[in-house]
């Protein structure tokens, strides 16, 4: 199907251009910075990453076929380091301290190729803005070393003082992982599986996690103020009894500290709409 000529009459977003010039001038020439701005504006307009659709949404006087070739050349010739992109996004965040970080992973297949992305985002008003990511050359769960590398990049680029806490689901639990967070004094609230073994110093014995919350009423919360041990690492424990799909379930969260805040903080994980979710990315 022949490419249509762009019929948009809107001028280029000068505010976006100003922001990008301030950030990328030392790395990219003005023509390529303008192309990035056109690309982003078109992305918001056509809501697709298909090059043909994007090229027809550019706010310029060029034919869509010309815009299409510019996009192809840019993608083929330019590699934007993750650090540049992350620092740009960070500079645009409405707040830059007391950040609630969210780590997540999405995995699907594009033809025969596995697309597996480990993502770190910043939660703000029930939306998580993707800040940095790593492509995993495999299927399935991330490894502890991959998670640590992602968090270490954040620390190297932005420091630890801006972090309020890190939220993660049941995939992101392990002795070395919790050990890394504990050693770096990074607050976290991470959900664990119901059958995890917990060592209770007070009882001097190991128990299955859900047993500690089984006598609660549905919807009732409990947090333990005494530190416990999971897989050799010390942490605090909170939980509640729930009903999921008509069956009894538990939401059990381990924390670095402040267990009384754990479930309220972790609730943000259920509410956010991570902009990198696989349904959005699969529009490619």
UniProtKB/TrEMBL annotation:
Q: Where is the Transposase IS4-like domain?
A: 100-274
Q: Name one GO biological process term.
A: DNA transposition
Q: Which top-rank group of organisms is this from?
A: Bacteria
SUPFAM superfamilies on file: Ribonuclease H-like (SSF53098)
Q: Where is coiled-coil annotated?
A: none
Q: Which InterPro entries match?
A: IS4-like_transpos, RNaseH-like_sf, Transposase_11
Q: State the Gene Ontology terms under molecular function.
A: DNA binding; transposase activity
Q: Tell me the protein's name.
A: Transposase DDE domain-containing protein
Recorded source organism is: Paenimyroides marinum
